[in-house]
Amino acid sequence: MKQKPSMAFIAASWVAVLAGILGFVIGLWNATMQLNEKGYYFTVLMYGLFSAVSVQKCVRDKIEGIPVTDIYYGLSWVSMLLTILLLTVGLWNATLAPSEKGFYAFAFLLSVFGAITVQKNTRDTQAAKAADVSRETI
């Protein structure tokens, strides 16, 4: 029997993803870096969120026996690792204070964690609803 995630876990997941994204974006908005640098970091964040959701979906699909091509599964993992590498290289070479670098790194990680848990909760909720519907029709 599939169990729906608790409302507390769903809320905590949404708070994590929104706090991470908002913190990162507000930090970029207030940063004194050039617009092209802000665009770089924003693109890395968006690419990271997409990659994290793709990895979570691929892993979950494989667990549930839903076919996933090896190329998409591999590209999802490569994309996730590439976003981490791009952020690391960007922050390593940035002329930011160490505290700012840490802020962006942790806001990114919080956003990615939140995106993964929101995706997981969405899948768990859908699976629980489908299980409830199939039980009602029996």
TrEMBL record:
Membrane found in the keyword field: yes
Cellular component GO terms, alphabetical: plasma membrane
Listed name of the protein: Putative membrane protein YiaA
Sequence ranges assigned to domain YiaAB two helix in this UniProt record: 9-61, 72-124
Gene Ontology BP term (one): DNA damage response
Record keywords: Membrane, Transmembrane, Transmembrane helix
Residue stretches spanning the membrane: 7-28, 40-59, 71-91, 103-119
Highest taxon, organism lineage: Bacteria
